[in-house]
Amino acid sequence: MNKRLEWIDVCKGILIITIVLMHINFSFWSENAVGQYIGNLTSLYKVSIFFCVAGLTLKDEKLRDTWNFIKGKIKNLYLKIIAVGVITVLLHNVLINIGFYQMGLDYTGKVMKPYGLADCIKQIILTLFMANREVIIGPMWYANVLFMALVILALSDWFIRLFVKNDNARVVRLIATLCLMLTSSALTNVAGFTIPRFNNTLTAVFLIDLCQFLYRILEWKFDNPWVFTIAALVLLSLPLYGHLSMTNNYFQDPAFLIIVAICGMYVLYYLSQKMTGGGYTKILSFIGRQSFWIMALHFTGFKIGSAILNLFINTDVSSLTPTASNVFIVAFYLFAGVLIPCVVGVAIEKTKKLVIR
Q: pTM score, two decimals?
């Protein structure tokens, strides 16, 4: 495998494992000072750097082919999002019947009830417009935001190049995406006005573009040990001052986000490159390549894990995220939340190859 692509997959593997891990409730340590610090630290990079990673493989020549670029994202990302969303809507009542959902329980703002035909139609239409709220695929908000951010970035690039014909167009685009983030931050963090999956999309556009600018235009290699040391020291100090939530588009201020993004990228990219070639590289790289399915299905993996665990100890299968009383149960849920989606992802990929043949 191309070394550059391998370390990018390794980075995605680290990030998706962190996301799965931090969706497990383990109060036996998360309620103390060390646990709270780690919670704040992981909140800084686990999703924000995932958006930045999208900028690593983004080539300007492909972005300039605006309509083909967007069609490619529709084919490779949007259709997968819609397929997962529609299938989940159709299985909604089944998930209630098998105990994965509990009737009447409030799942982060959605009180669970069965769907009639009209409800199914409504939810499928919402899915097509990327407004699906099925709780078991809640983390799919990331894929929705990523798709919309890439489309906005492509359209912004096209619009800017209508007026700026020289090489300055690239800098103008970075300024434009910075302005989108500043506007989004002011709306959410100052005015208290947030449209779900819109405000954070504007922030994501900037994070993708910033990474692409540093990596492709300024040609940062993210391999200098001295810069890594400085970036790591800064990143490790930031949890003392606040946290970041890309889901809610919350961050202390734009400067905080930019420092998090630059330091987080340097630390994660540097470590990922250093890890390339190790015995665990293939595992992390494989997990990184399956990150879409892990993001989409790790709540399902948790519930299957809870159903298995319920055979031996009393476990709340209907809970959206699992609760672990010790480190062994944390490891069990982490394994279930990563492995089960990987199995599904591989099965889907192999099936597609057979159909294409």
A: 0.95
CB 124 within 8 A of CB 89: yes
- Are 244 and 213 in contact by the 8 Å Cβ rule? The answer is no
Q: Do the Cβ atoms of 89 and 114 come closer than 8 Å?
A: no
Q: Is the dihedral of CA 63, 64, 67, 72 positive or negative?
A: negative
pLDDT in tens, 3-39: 558 999 999 999 999 999 999 998 777 778 888 999 9
Q: Contact at 8 Å (CB) between 259 and 209?
A: no
Q: In whole angstroms, how far apart are CA 178 and each of 8, 17, 251, 296?
A: 24, 29, 15, 29
Q: Are 89 and 117 a contacting pair, CB within 8 Å?
A: no
Angle between helices 117-128 and 79-90 (to 10 degrees): 170
> How many secondary structure helices (H) and strands (E) does the chain include?
17, 2
Candidates 299, 335, 295; CA nearest to 320 is 299
Q: How confident is the model at residue 162 (pLDDT cuts 50, 70, 90)?
A: very high
Using DSSP, state whether 323 is helix, strand or coil.
strand
d(CA 203, CA 179): 10
Interacting residues of 252 by C-beta distance below 8 A, sequence separation 6+: 189, 241, 242, 244
Which tens digits make up the pLDDT trace of 204-225? 999 999 999 999 999 999 999 9
State the burial class of residue 294 (Cβ atoms within 10 Å of its Cβ: 0-12, 13-18, 19+): buried
